[in-house]
Design a protein that fits this description.
The protein starts with 5 loop residues before the first helix and ends in a 7-residue tail after the last strand. It has 3 domains: 6-63; 88-150; 187-293 and 301-329, no CATH class. The chain is built from 14 helices and 5 strands. The protein is mostly helical.
Length: 329
């Protein structure tokens, strides 16, 4: 009676044919060791080899060291499935481009960044925007490589809901895309931060924050007049400034350049911030505004009637345009 079923006896020679010559001998010997010595000839018949091959295989097994020293792979160099970095050499740039408009972070630490996109959504956008098809596991590796972290919501803020929040984010994305395609500049700014000057204690990575309000309309009107250009303004919704690109592309690097230094003068602050740079090419230009802004200032009575600030029909509370008037020389 045959030692193996017909299914096994048919599968054995198929597998045997895929092995190298040395591994064929070892496999034949292992199968032979499962049976009495009298049936070793049966193994040779099933595998289509000689009984001598079986014996040599047993000798090979006996010569193996107690602690196996594995031989180099039989596969030729460069064989096998290529990694995603080889098949998609620009995947890092494409990955960051997909996340660019959906990334937020800590303005004091450039390593603390996050995105509201899921790995599946990122994979879909890579395929849609760059024709790059990768799995969710590859996306997770890219997220880890570029320091994107999963975060858990902390119950530290009072419940605040901002109507039309998502609609405004969509509008900002559309405006950015339109301006880029037209070759127009996009400027991100934030004006709420202020540092105290003087011989005061400052920990290495802590900053005192105090909100600063300015009247942006009357200043922007003068700029539009001076340039002779229309200026488009799109505000981020309340409590969403962390998604402003300047928060995680500039502020953490400026904070690092000033870390631990006591601000004793405006000149020192300017010098420190002007030194800010990164290996990726970030350079910072610093200018000190000497203007003293009067507090409690009221808008002129005829300003609303004569102003050239045009508010959008959709979400006018966050979107407007400053139109140029007579050019100022």
């Amino acid at each position: 009676m045959p030692a193996y079923s017909p299914e096994i006896a048919q599968a054995m020679p198929k597998y045997y044919a895929t092995l190298s010559e040395k591994d064929q001998r070892r496999y034949a010997a292992i199968e032979a060791l499962k049976l009495p010595r009298a049936e070793h000839r049966y193994i040779a018949q099933v595998l289509g080899c000689s009984l001598k091959t079986v014996r040599r295989g047993r000798a090979d097994l006996a010569a193996l060291p107690a602690a196996p020293q594995y031989e180099p792979a039989v596969r030729q160099p460069g064989g096998g499935r290529k990694g995603y970095a080889v098949t998609h050499p620009d995947i890092d740039t494409q990955f960051l481009a997909v996340l660019q408009e959906s990334t937020a972070g800590d303005p004091m630490d450039d390593q603390v960044v996050w995105t509201d996109l899921t790995p599946q959504a990122i994979a879909g956008l890579l395929a849609e925007q760059h024709q790059v098809r990768v799995s969710k596991s590859v996306v997770r590796k890219l997220l880890q490589k570029h320091h994107y972290r999963r975060r858990k919501a902390q119950k530290k803020q009072t419940l605040k809901t901002v109507p039309h929040r998502d609609a405004q984010f969509g509008k900002i994305d559309a405006l950015k895309a339109a301006f880029r395609s037209a070759g127009n500049p996009i400027i991100s700014f934030d004006t709420k931060k202020k540092e105290s000057l003087g011989n005061l204690y400052r920990a290495g990575h802590l900053y005192t924050r105090q909100e600063l309000h300015t009247y942006d309309h009357e200043d922007l009107q003068k700029l539009a007049d001076a340039l002779g250009l229309e200026i488009r303004i799109a505000h981020y919704p309340p409590y969403c400034s962390k998604y402003n690109p300047i928060e995680h592309r500039l502020f953490p690097h400026v904070a690092r350049a000033c870390q631990g230094v006591i601000f004793t003068s405006v000149a020192l602050v300017k010098e420190l911030m002007a030194r800010t740079h990164t290996r990726q090419g970030l350079q910072v230009v610093v200018d000190i505004i000497e203007t003293v802004y009067q507090t409690g200032r009221k808008v002129a009575n005829d300003f609303k009637a004569t102003m050239r600030i045009v508010f959008d029909q959709v979400l006018p509370q966050w979107n407007c345009r400053a139109l140029p008037g007579k050019t100022v020389i």
